[in-house]
Specification:
about 170 residues, alpha+beta, Aminopeptidase, three-stranded antiparallel sheet, globular
Length: about 170
Amino acid sequence: MILLVRPSIEYKESHINMLNELKNEDKYNKINVSKIRKNFSKYLFEINEREINPKQGRVPDTNFWLIVNEECVGTINIRHSLTENLKKIGGHIGYGIKPSERKKGYGTHMLKLALIECKKMGLNKVLITCSPNNIGSVKIIENNGGVLENEIIVEIDKENRRTLRYWIDI
């Protein structure tokens, strides 16, 4: 069974296992898994608090976890609106599948379920960005109806990065 759920104590160990796999990748390397494990309730509170009370300079967002056969295999974050920066890189949706569960179609399924949640939030069109080198993400987006608008160069940490910008009509 495949479900998209709100973050929950029920999946603590499974989520921690997923974070341990992800923390070795660049965009996740700041994850402090031992700190999260020690105070998982605070971690859950902070995830849910971002939806109603985002930090300064951030937009409200909603987080979901992809559960496959009672195991957390992915996470997806829906931003309710876009800043000028998010229009360039980040978009409405960010996601990750733990490495041991990639190339099994879970990312495509997770995005499909998240688009249903986007519709419930009143979003009719969403922007998703990714690196042109991230072939898996490109396939996930295109499998869900993503239409490439353009490719742009964005400066991140004094380095120019190519970014694909896709729109999905819901």
